[in-house]
């Protein structure tokens, strides 16, 4: 099938649409949550008020000229300056919002608020939830399964861990409790198992998405990869900045290790992961690319080389999927292989569906007959692989 290079980018300018609501309702709610969580001084509160106004009805403006990344954002903003946030690509507008938020709270400026994760209270609350103990015990049991079942169980946990991130829960509190569909809308797990067969070694890049409930199963997956010789080395890619509310940073990784270690059942898993970090079989990376408005078609050379050197890159979550396939109105039957052709090396996507973009699902129209929520509410997932 020929890929239509002209598939239009997803925008947010249809009032009432999903993307419009993210900009118009979710972003202001995120600002309110951040403002309520910290005793910020007047100048930060004023900056947050201004951002709330801009997020609802503003136009794209340059970042402050003294921002450390002003030159990059000047380049990325050039096509959109002066345009409504709703008329620029949705992917771009969201990234711009989170960058502006960090600016508003003084994340990069010298002073007492520098480097403070605005989403830390929610992340901490999620990890402190005693209900998580049952999940940890379940993750710990994966290592006791027969070897051929371990990968299936770990991939399943890592996939569905993506279902209810903290940003989604803000506007959809039910997302956490809704049962997920037992079928996947695309399932290339046979190819995944082949690439990750025991004893095949090599490097796997695991591009993580959210902290807490998602990163914990991702760590169980790392353990399965290393323990069964499915990989000699895993690079775990995290965000360099707090972004998209629950995106996992290095600090979140440490918090997850701590949580695993504190529970009797999962303490051995924490021990194995710490050992792997200590001897270099597990390496952490925080490429700046993950906090830009760019797609994987615009990968910087260094990161592309890392992916090329790996036998497989596993990309987690909805946002990475949008960066990977391009956040466009593709016909859903467009082959995954076609839109990921330019990716350097083999790539697998583990994603629950929380936004409109979708490829590699020829029966999407039939599913749409029952309404389109399945594309948005995290109940459906996919495993797609391109070798
Ligand atoms: O955490 P994930 O799986 O990347 O999902 C985040 C998703 O939430 C949104 O920000 C809003 O729904 C999407 O645009 C984004 O793709």
UniProtKB/TrEMBL annotation:
Pfam families: ARMT1-like_dom. The keyword Signal does not apply. Keywords: Hydrolase, Manganese, Metal-binding. It catalyses: beta-D-fructose 6-phosphate = dihydroxyacetone + D-glyceraldehyde 3-phosphate; beta-D-fructose 1-phosphate + H2O = D-fructose + phosphate. GO terms for molecular function: metal ion binding; phosphatase activity. The keyword Manganese applies. This is Damage-control phosphatase ARMT1-like metal-binding domain-containing protein.
């Amino acid at each position: 099938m020929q890929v239509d290079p002209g598939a239009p980018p997803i925008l947010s300018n249809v009032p009432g649409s999903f993307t419009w609501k993210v900009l118009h309702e979710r972003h202001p709610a995120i600002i309110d949550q951040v403002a309520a969580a910290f005793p910020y001084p007047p100048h930060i509160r004023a900056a947050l008020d201004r951002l709330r106004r801009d997020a609802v009805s503003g136009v794209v403006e340059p970042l402050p000229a003294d921002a450390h990344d002003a030159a990059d954002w000047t380049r990325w903003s050039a096509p959109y300056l002066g345009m409504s946030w709703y008329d620029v690509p949705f992917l771009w507008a969201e990234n711009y919002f989170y960058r502006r938020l960090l600016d508003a709270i003084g994340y990069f400026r010298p002073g007492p608020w520098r480097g403070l994760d605005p989403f830390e209270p929610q992340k901490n609350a999620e990890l402190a939830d005693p209900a998580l103990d049952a999940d940890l015990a379940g993750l710990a049991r994966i290592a006791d399964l027969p070897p051929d079942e371990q990968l299936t169980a770990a991939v399943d946990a890592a996939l569905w861990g993506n279902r209810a991130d903290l940003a989604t829960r803000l506007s959809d509190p039910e997302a956490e409790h809704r049962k997920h569909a037992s079928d996947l809308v695309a399932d290339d797990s046979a190819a995944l198992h082949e690439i990750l067969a025991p004893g095949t070694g090599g490097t796997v890049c695991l591009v993580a998405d959210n902290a807490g409930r998602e990163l914990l199963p991702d760590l169980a997956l790392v353990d399965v990869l290393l323990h069964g010789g499915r990989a000699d080395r895993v690079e775990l890619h995290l965000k360099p900045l707090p972004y998209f509310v629950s995106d996992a940073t290095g600090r979140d990784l440490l918090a997850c290790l701590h949580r695993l270690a504190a529970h009797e059942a999962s303490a051995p898993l924490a021990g194995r992961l710490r050992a792997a970090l200590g001897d270099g079989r597990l390496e952490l990376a925080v490429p700046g690319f993950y906090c830009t408005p760019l797609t994987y078609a615009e990968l910087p050379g260094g990161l592309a080389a890392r992916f090329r050197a790996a036998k497989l890159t596993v990309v987690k979550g909805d946002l990475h999927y949008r960066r990977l396939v391009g956040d466009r109105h593709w016909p859903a039957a467009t082959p995954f292989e076609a839109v990921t052709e330019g990716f350097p090396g083999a790539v697998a996507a583990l994603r629950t569906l929380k936004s409109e973009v979708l490829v590699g699902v020829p029966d999407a129209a039939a599913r749409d007959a029952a309404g389109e929520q399945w594309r948005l509410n995290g109940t459906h997932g996919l495993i797609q692989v391109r070798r």
